[in-house]
Amino acid sequence: MADSMAEYLQSDMECEGLLECIHGLKELDRECFQVLVESEEPLTIDEMADQVDRERSTAYRSIQRLLQSGFVQKEQVNYEQGGYYHVYRPTDPDEVADDMQRMLNDWYAKMGQLVQEFRDKYDQQPVAAEN
């Protein structure tokens, strides 16, 4: 992972790298997201764990990170005789992309503000006269 903005800009990034860069997600999260995207039906945590060959609790934590980041939606399925279970599906890619664009715009505005604060703080220094 790159440590500075300059390193990020020089590195070869794929669109999936946005999951890590913007949302701080992990490789397993990317893997889980890809499984959900490729699945024709929403999946349970147990089905997800089987697909990514991980323990149920590990898959659950990954899905929770994806939920918090807005990449995944949770749906409740009710049994006829009572009770329920949850299934997970990917969020519409346009919604995710719009959210990432908003975050990027907010970040850009914040960085612009910090650059201006830097100018204001250090432009105050008197320049030494040349002889």
Mean pLDDT, nearest integer? 85
Order of helices and strands: HHHHHEEH
The figure for the number of domains is: 2
What about the largest sheet?
2 strands, antiparallel
Parts with pLDDT < 50 across at least 5 consecutive residues = none
**CATH top level label of the largest domain:** Mainly Alpha
Instruction: Please count the beta strands (DSSP E, at least 2 residues each).
Output: 2
Order of strands across the main sheet: 1-2
Going by CATH, what is the homologous superfamily of the largest domain? Winged helix-like DNA-binding domain superfamily/Winged helix DNA-binding domain
Named CATH topology of the largest domain: Arc Repressor Mutant, subunit A
From the alpha-carbon coordinates, what is the Rg to the nearest angstrom? 22 Å
Kindly estimate the percentage of residues that lie in beta strands according to DSSP: 5-15%
> What is the count of helical runs?
6
Q: What would you say the CATH architecture of the largest domain is? A: Orthogonal Bundle
- Shape call: elongated
Helix content: 55-70%
Cα end-to-end separation: 48 Å
What structural category do the secondary elements indicate? mainly alpha
